[in-house]
Design brief:
Elements (H helix, E strand, L loop, with lengths): L4 E10 L12 E11 L4 E5 L6 H8 L7 E6 L2 E2 L6 H6 L3 E5 L2 H4 L6 H11 L5 H14 L16 H13 L5 E5 L7 H18 L2 E6 L2 H5 L4 E6 L2 E7 H6 L4 H8 L49 E4 L2 E3 L14
Parallel strand pairs: 3-8, 3-9, 6-7, 7-8
Antiparallel strand pairs: 1-2, 1-4, 4-5, 9-10, 10-12, 11-12
The chain binds adenosine-5'-diphosphate (ADP) and magnesium ion.
The site of magnesium ion has 3 residues, from helix 1.
């Protein structure tokens, strides 16, 4: 089966900022990332702030250009941003991000904004447009009569529902959700995650779900990739990541999220500061914070290799019975 989305060797560099005294080095925000996403599959990306998740999400949609590497959608190379081909493709791939207020126009009603992509792509007008907007609002748990309201008249959770309705308007095949619930109250987060999961299941939409919060991805993702300083350090099915994390960084992340009814006993605390991407540690970038590190971890960069069928991890300490890179 042709993957819906494929990325090979993705790299994104940002030039360092000059300060009065020195110029910080180039930041490799995304560093040699490969991934494939099948139609209808949900892939989560987790990692601390600054690990390159948002940059990767934008690159997957062609919004941020790759310094190196390629993205293909449905077997074809991602067209250049703003080209007519790219604009046409945007109907099939949509972005939902953290701050719904920033993504909405304060001067337009909710209904107008949900209908906008349908008009832009010439998919509906007049009565059909109105009907479609009402149906979309119902799908995301909003009442059609709320369509006459303006963004500031809604709660944060309702605004994110508007964004989701707008993203669904063109019946996309791929949704990239970048911290879609991070700005919402904890009590609302689960509702919005459940909504996304139901929509994803009902419509068979493939999803890249980005979050710094492992708890959030657990309920929605088939597979999870853990990022550290721009690289994937572990990738496995969601069940396996939680039940048997392999990489020491994943173990620390998982141990900080107890299952319901479990205590935080056995929690692995991460040592030291979160890393500065402009000063990537030598060898394995995680080694200064890793309680299991051995001398070679400070020297050699571990490759992301198969550790079991359909699992990969980048750690010198893991056995590599199936050694060899994943295709
Ligand atoms: P995350 O979403 O995981 O927090 P980001 O992708 O936002 O990570 O950022 C990864 C790294 O790239 C960070 O060090 C960030 O400072 C840097 N970065 C992101 N966007 C830009 C930009 N437009 N210009 C310069 N540096 C950037
Ligand atoms: Mg981000």
């Amino acid at each position: 089966m042709t993957p819906l989305l494929k990325a090979e060797g993705l790299v994104r560099c940002y030039e360092g900022q000059k300060t009065l005294f020195k110029k910080s080095g180039t930041v490799r925000a995304v560093d040699r990332i490969d991934l494939t996403l099948k139609p209808g599959e949900t892939l989560g990306f987790v990692g601390e702030s600054g690990s390159g998740k948002s940059t990767l999400g934008r690159m997957l949609l062609g919004i941020d250009p790759a310094t190196e590497g390629h993205v293909s959608f449905d077997g074809k190379p991602m067209p250049q941003m703003y080209s007519p081909e790219w604009r046409a493709l945007r109907a099939q791939m949509q972005l939902v991000f953290q701050d719904p207020l920033a993504a909405l126009d304060r001067r337009l009603t909710i209904a107008d904004q949900i209908g906008e992509p349908l008009e832009i792509h010439g998919l509906a007008k007049g009565y059909a447009l109105k009907e479609r907007v009402s149906a979309l609002m119902e799908q995301v748990g909003l009442r059609p009569e709320q369509g006459a309201r303006y963004p500031h008249e809604l709660s944060g959770g309702q605004r994110q529902r508007v964004i989701i309705a707008r993203a669904l308007a063109t019946s996309p095949r791929l949704l990239v959700c970048d911290e879609p619930v991070s700005a919402l109250d904890v009590s609302i987060q689960a509702q919005v995650v459940n909504l996304l999961r139901d929509l994803q299941e009902d419509h068979g939409i493939a999803m890249v779900f980005i979050s710094h919060d492992l708890k959030v991805v657990r309920n929605i993702c088939d597979r999870v990739a853990v990022m550290y300083l721009g690289r994937i350090v572990e990738e496995a099915s969601s069940d396996e990541i939680f039940a048997y994390p392999q990489h020491p960084y994943t173990k620390a992340l998982v141990s900080s999220v107890p299952l319901p009814g479990q205590s935080l006993q056995g929690r692995i605390l991460l040592k030291g500061e979160p890393p500065n991407p402009a000063h990537r540690p030598s060898g394995c970038a995680f080694h200064p914070r890793c309680s299991a590190a051995i001398p070679s971890c400070a020297i050699d960069v571990p490759a992301l290799e198969n550790t079991a069928p359909k699992r990969r991890a980048a750690c010198h300490l893991l056995n590599k019975p199936l050694s060899g890179k994943v295709a």
